[in-house]
Design goal:
Length: 361
């Protein structure tokens, strides 16, 4: 249910995001409306974070792991979560902290949820303490963990605390004591840590603060340094076939692609995409690139349609697009024959980057 809601909601967000981007590109930047559009775009980014929590809580939220150090992640995430706040973060993180096999985005999500909870528990200000260290567990006594090497992350505050009768419910989905809470933050954190073969515990007493303790298995592999991508806005030329079953996505994304300089043909399912691609092959203007939604309820989606396109043209270049950003195809698109993956909702710089990389030549 959570995954289905998130998928449908992401489609709505994608249309809103693209239309706001188009509006920003076509107004006088001196006008106050630009500030309002910027605010709306920020709100959409927060909504996108909520759908990511829903997807993670659902079975579609399997982590995409890589070997990483989370020293910087702990500091960067806490600094971001407390930006502009009257709460400060004190970090005591071992310089010798072992690497771990994690989905950095998901672990950052866990840390952010816990930091925000700590901040909200101290409305008059205070300090959040983060301690991280290596740990060897020799037996399973007291732990639902296998023996081995772990890192332990402790996040504590001196806030209002959690009543004893609520302690065993804090990780339950949709349970919250906050007036405006979704009840997804801690259940999402629990799901993420469990999917990383780790453990998250809570200790608290009302009026005495709260401590969350996270255990993550240490990695046995060596880490490779990967530089983060730098997104720049590029305009281009070429013929693009766009397939999506949602009219709002087709219209908005088609307009955005045309605004960026591309010629666009829009279709609603895989069979129409195959037909349009075949017709273009026989013409003087074949498609340079295809963008296809992976899931078409009641019809042929992008994964199946790609195989048919490759039979007709082994050089076909196709980008996978989906509101299920955690779909295995999105994580390993090359294994399925795609040349790129575009998670909805996306910003123009993300679309621009993927198009520049995926276009032939």
């Amino acid at each position: 249910m959570a995954g289905g809601i998130a998928h449908d909601f992401n489609n709505i967000l994608a249309s809103m995001m693209v239309n706001i981007t188009l509006a920003k590109m076509n107004i006088n930047k001196e006008r106050k409306v630009l500030a309002k559009l910027n605010d709306a775009e920020k709100a959409l980014s927060r909504a996108k974070d909520l759908t990511r929590q829903l997807l993670t809580f659902s079975k579609g939220g399997a982590p995409i792991k890589s070997v990483a150090s989370i020293q910087g992640l702990l500091r960067d995430t806490s600094d971001f979560a407390l930006s502009g706040s009257n709460v400060k973060c004190n970090c005591n993180i071992s310089d010798e902290l072992w690497d771990v096999d994690v989905d950095e985005g998901q672990i950052s999500q866990v840390i952010q949820n816990l930091i925000i909870n700590a901040e909200q528990a101290m409305p008059d200000g205070g300090n959040v303490h983060i301690h991280a260290e290596n740990l060897v567990i020799d037996s399973q006594e007291g732990f639902s963990l296998n023996p081995g090497r772990y890192i332990r992350v402790i996040i504590s505050d001196k806030g209002v605390g959690i009543p004893q009768e609520h302690l065993d419910k804090v990780f339950d989905p949709f349970f919250t004591t906050k007036p405006r809470g979704s009840g997804l933050g801690l259940s999402t954190a629990y799901s993420i840590i469990k999917n990383h073969n780790g453990l998250i515990r809570v200790e608290s007493r009302q009026g005495g603060g709260t401590t969350f303790i996270i255990y993550l298995p240490a990695s046995n592999a060596s880490r490779k340094r990967i530089e983060p991508p730098v997104f720049t806005l590029n305009f281009g030329k070429g013929n693009i076939l766009l397939m999506d079953d949602e009219d709002i996505i087709l219209d908005a994304s088609g307009d955005l692609l045309e605004e960026m300089g591309y010629e666009v043909v829009k279709v609603k399912d895989g069979l129409d995409a195959i037909s349009a691609y075949e017709s273009a092959l026989k013409s003087t203007s074949p498609f340079d690139l295809v963008i296809m939604d992976l899931i078409v309820p009641g019809g042929m989606g992008g994964k199946e349609a790609l195989q048919e396109l490759l039979k007709r043209d082994p050089t076909a270049r196709v980008i996978a697009s989906s509101g299920y950003s955690t779909d295995p195809v999105m994580a390993n698109y090359q294994e399925y024959g795609f040349v790129g993956a575009l998670a909805k909702p996306y910003k123009i710089v993300e679309l621009s980057h993927i198009l520049a990389r995926a276009m032939p030549g």
